[in-house]
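TEACHING EXERCISE
Course module: macromolecular assemblies
Task: Read the component lines below, then compare them to the predicted structure of the full complex.
Student: A.B.
Group: 4
Components provided:
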Amino acid sequence: MNLLDLILNPLQYSFMVRGLSAAVLTGTVCAVVGVYVVIRGMAFFGDALAHSILPGVAIGYLLTGGSREPLFWWGTGTAVIVSLAIGAVSRGAKIKEDTAIGIIFAGMFALGIAIISTVKSYTVDLTHFLFGDVLGVSGSQLITIASFSAVILLLVIGFYKEFLVLTFDPTLAATLRIPKRVFEYLQLVLIALAIAVSFQAVGVALMVAMLVTPAAAAYLLTKRLPVMMIMAAVIASASGVIGLYFSYYVNVVSGPAIVLTATLFFILAWTYKILQVKIRQGREVRETR
Amino acid sequence: MKNLIKTFRKQSFSRRYAPHQLDAPLLALENVSVRYGTGTVLENISFELSPGDGVAVVGPNGAGKTTLFQVIAGITDPFEGVVRISGHEPGGHTCIAYVPQRSQVDWSFPATVADVVMMGRINKMGPFLWPQADDWEMVRRSLKFVDLIDYSQRQISELSGGEQQRMFIARALAQEAELMLLDEPLNGLDVPAQESILSILETLRNREVTFMISMHDLRLAAGQFNQVMLLNKILLGLGSPEEVFTRDLLIKAYRGHLHFVEGEFDTLAVGDDCCEGDYHELA
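Instructor-supplied answer key:
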């Protein structure tokens, strides 16, 4: 069997094609939104938000009798509400932000597992919720994922300037009269939407990897924000595709396979960066001699 | 057609502001007080500036220099009193540029020098619009003015302290600011870097750009600026260095943390505890 067959063989299954499309779409969206997560140091927020959507999904799951389709909307609603709640709680300065996030994170996650555990055969479904089931994405789910991805990307591109200034220099944003709070909450909502969109693909437990890992790898390789976004999207998409093929041939669960591939990309970028610095230092030493 | 859409977007979306009142002073503060919690940071500040004024603001740490700039820029609201920029409230204008302290900025941010200077142009574009040729031209001219044109594609972390400060001045220029507020731009810079920034400011002043610059070095303030402001919660003096840097007013500003030393050439040395062991000389 040659390489072309290795690539084409899985594509005869429509679930593989749908899975690959979903992996590329959600990877791109998470990576682009994740660039701000990495730059602003919000990894913990992202992780917490992903775990916090579990009770919403669980309630939806119980009410709709185990149907998968409506779960997206339950996840979206919960993610948006929780993101705004964390934003509001961390504003009331009594508790530090990461403490507030920790409380909401653990409480919501526990609630989610408690609700799901009331169902008899809960372990299979819980595994899907935690680690994703990208190969189980249906055609209509794919359409929903694609439309939401488009909306998120449009908002990121459309308000690129505003987000850029607000992240780099909030004081400049204030003198330019950019409505700070509106865009801060919009940023939280965008992260929430990216999580909801990717829920089916990677599940809540590994979501933070999709937000952080490709963006962090891109951060090591470039010095400009737009380039970082594009690189992060490419790394995430490649991780999705390679990870799924890996999962197909080696029979590993898809979500972890995607995340592991992204981690490998990060290690490569990190090694490249270290070598680059070493070579530059070596050259400088030689020049000064 | 494309141009028509562009014009429409610029006109309908870009933030519009009332035109300047020509008879009003560029900057006027009337009885401005600022309080954080129970503490008073600024009390009853009143003064006016005209186009082309360049004022060095000095005072001990915690004197309210940064707060004064923030109130003028409209970032902080005054507890009492009013700030007027050419007759309007600061919230209505973007012709003010606040040049932050270097320590306030995340220098590992993935941006080039040109990217940061372009941030000053944001309000000239509407939402959903990307920089146009005239925006890039403005960025290029601003970078040329501060002698950083060869550095435009560098990552901002690769700049020296003086270059970082010049980049922010270029951003204020790209913003087409009429009033620049520079928060301790000379801190931590060596003498050549300080001199290059001072000479840029001098050129700006000749072009009728008004600026206020906060600093600690009294001798530099007295030697380089014909207007100085002495601040410590209240406005102790605004005028020429001879009028303002008098023994009485300096004692009022620096309280117990001040040493006057009669040196050769009648030099007064002023010790300011914000820079321990570092004696600022005042001619």
